[in-house]
Amino acid sequence: MSPRFIIGLTLSLSLFLCNTVFAANRVIILENPHRPVAGEIARELETYGFSTQIISDTPTVDLAGIASRESASATIRLNLKGRKVEVWVADRITGKLVMRTIELTPGDQKEQSIIVLAAVELLRASLMEIYAVQKQPGKVQPTKQTRSFAKPVAVEPGDRKSQKQQRIISGVLSVGVGGNIPGKQTGLGGHGRADIVLDFDRRVQFSAVGRFPLAPFSLSSDAGQADLNPFLFGAQTTVLLRPEESRLRLFTGMGMGVMIYMAEGAYDPEYIKKHAGSLQSRTQTVISTATFFTGGVLVKLNRQLALRLSSILGISTMMVRTKIGKKTVARLGQPFFYFDAGLDLTLW
């Protein structure tokens, strides 16, 4: 499997996932992203398993068309008229457009909470038609999350608060594939990624990271050839830069760990003859500590899944030279580079 094939497959998979996965659990919120009420609606819906995206409001009235264009199941729009607020919901699962008007009391400090509750409950009321005996078929099929959200079961406010508090610290399994350059003269190779991530309040992440080769690097000279397998194990801290409700979030951080280089070489038979048969093939393992910086993009697909595009640029404490005969065929670790794409699965 060539590195070009691995990279092409990775990019194709990434684009496919971004455009087709979990449309039925997505909700578009048409509102000014800088207004706090938009973020509150997004956070409330996410506690029920939806993924959300806030888009600046537009003059168009085709809310269902916006949901279809953004590969979502519903669109929520707020229209403020003085002390009155119109809450619109276009629901592609049941095929309806519904509206509710609420009148705010002057001086009421709970205005934002009232608007959030009205938006969420109007969406729930629209989706309750899923359970009707005779229901109008929509263009999107309901999922387990939407059925659970629409099920007519009372939820106390205290239960929702407790649910949010339990999500302050979450565990994430992150897996993926990509390319890497372990040093000078090695060329590009493929690797797999497996990380265990502790997410603190969706702002800071501590990770145990692992990178392992999918195929060895082939190194050669006139004296023979060698197969090189580089491994990276360590721990890193990353900070998520964009707001929590953003679907696309940048991250950056740094970490420390160990680089393990495993090389297995074999001399060319003709080269052995020239040295009177005194040379023998051997396997060697070298371990070096390393410091690295990381950065990338996290694309939220739904409450439990995210697409992670990440990179690592690091340097090991010593340069490891790989020789075949008297010729140096690779200089490893100063620096090294990894880039990959994969999925984050929230475990709890």
Question: What is the level 1 CATH name of the largest domain?
Answer: Mainly Beta
Summarize the helix and strand pattern as letters: HEHEHEEEHHHEEEEEEHEEEE
Low-pLDDT runs: 17-21, 154-167
* Total number of helices: 7
Main beta-sheet annotation: 8 strands, antiparallel, barrel
Name the CATH architecture of the largest domain. Answer: Beta Barrel
Commentary on this structure:
The model is unreliable at 17-21 and 154-167 (pLDDT under 50). The chain starts with a helix and ends with a strand. The protein has 2 domains: 3-166, Maf protein, CATH 3.90.950; 169-346, Porin (Beta Barrel), CATH 2.40.160. It has 348 residues and is an alpha+beta fold. The longest helix is centred in the N-terminal third of the chain and has 18 residues, at 3-20. Strands 6-7-8-10-11-12-13-15 form an 8-stranded antiparallel beta barrel. A hairpin with a 3-residue loop joins β7 and β8 (204-213). The protein is elongated and about 95 Å long. The chain is built from 7 helices and 15 strands. 22% of the residues lie in helices and 49% in strands.
